[in-house]
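notes to self, project folder thing:

trying the whole complex as one job this time. last attempt i did each chain seperately and stitching them together was a nightmare. two parts in total, labels are on each line so i dont mix them up again. if this works i'll redo the older ones the same way
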Amino acid sequence: MLTVIHSFWQRTIVNGESFLVKEGQKKFKRAKSIVGIYYFIIFCIALQCFGINHLTPDWKVLRDSESLFSPLWTVRWLVYLDWELAIRLVLLFFFSASLLNLIFWQRYRLVRVLVFLSHLFYLSLISSFGKIDHFMHMMVLSSFMLIFLPNLKQGALENPTPFLRVFFGNQLLILLSYSSSGLFKLYGILDQELRGLNSALSPTAFGQNIAKTSFASNQEFFFSSFILENPGFVFSVLLVLGYLIEFLSAYIAFKPKVHRTWGLSLILLHSGILMTVGPDFTHQILVVGLFIFFSPFNLNKHSVWGDFITIFNGIRNTFNKVPSPYKKVTVFYDGECLLCHRFIRYFSMFDLPDEFSVAPQSGEAFNTFLTKYPALEKVDSIMVLEIRNDGTEIIRIKSGAVLWIVGQLKWIFRILWLFYAISPLFADMVYDLFAKHRK
Amino acid sequence: MKGRFAYYFIPVFIIIYFAISFYPIIRMTNAEVIPFFSFKLYSKIPNGFERYDVAFNLGEKDEHFLLYQNTHLNGLQWRRYAAELRQITNAYENNMTVKLDKLEDAFPKNQTATLVRFKGDYIEAVRDRKYQLEVVEQLR
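result (full assembly):
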């Protein structure tokens, strides 16, 4: 388990430096502002529960619905109280905890615990009538994760890494929920295709989803009638694109340069859902917007459009048959490891460009390299240093390094990148577990 | 905590979170462990449908349904009645006694109540109002 935990955090090392540590104070200030805004939004939502809106039930409706109450495990205790008192208690607890939290969240963990509990009780209460709504789940889970932020004395921290670590954990939790959802949907395609049923690849797939919610809820959504009248493959493409955006989200967590782009994609995904299938995930959009679109780990100076171009170029370069524009590539390997020796020997059998060289990690060159990238000192892995013609240094470690090397040997091996792209974290964990038991 | 607890806790919690999301799959149920998501939602495309409902005064001029096209219910009533209806239909499909006690409040007085089944294709049902309506059991 410890290996898995270390693998997890070492995955935040991008190009030789952890993005949780690099420019830490700057990122901490942004992250702190985001958390403050998030708690302000929680306060507004708590306030909203007293008014009339379409997302949360009117409090008077709640008061008059005792006979419909079927408590979830988190609010089973409410049945021991007078019903009206219980309703008022849950709502007032949510309001007062979020107000207190707005003022004291930086100083006291206890108020962050209270805001999580009050939010959980409220969500559980409104979900205790036979059906669970999901629009508020991610907020409750984020409130839980943010409990673990370190308290800030005078609003500052000498070492901001623990704060950023919790912030990143929350980002990953959000993105992982999308990935899991996308995973099941892609599995759904496979399962339905194998059984000869209409899947998401069918031209009427999107229309079927829309019609299902329309039928069940007696509602018509903004684009629903248009899509139902004009089924076509373009909607299936959009549907599968949405699945892929969801599925790849966890991968994006470890790519801070594309946080903004992905945040925007997820926001557009929710917007599309709202206009077609119906579920209103405005709360989720707020969470994605704050934590992913405004991610403090993305300090790109260019616009979101620039992020799109970066992603496009990255994908193009990965599958480009033209050799990389490198000036020099050094592969640092563990000289005491038999397996690494074999791998290097296999690697040397190929006709590689003169710019390629190998060096043991016990040598002087590696020590010089570590002096420049101290974050790699505790990383037990094969490492690749690529120096490009423009002077840019690209560092790859663990499964990323191995797959990059084999990709240079034969172009066809680059297909392995697809497996790596599905879960680099998992690939690194496998690498670490393998490395731990190697001889 | 000095940050060390979070260092170990966050990866472990994320693994637990991921594992719990598989609970409904393993148990073959729609039950969810709040506040964890069920990722099964919308993972399959409907291939036709069968939905149960309760029809009041079936075949009469003032025929109406408990859920279908019923805009008089508030959100909580709709959810609760839909959940009860699921239990009734499960009981019916498993040849168990159908209990109506939790739905009695929803039944208009002096009107007949019939358990019915809608069948068809969702798109045709919504776009063209084309569906089959089968009588399953006379409830009242």
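what i see at first glance: Chain B is about 35% helix and 20% strand.
need to look closer tmrw
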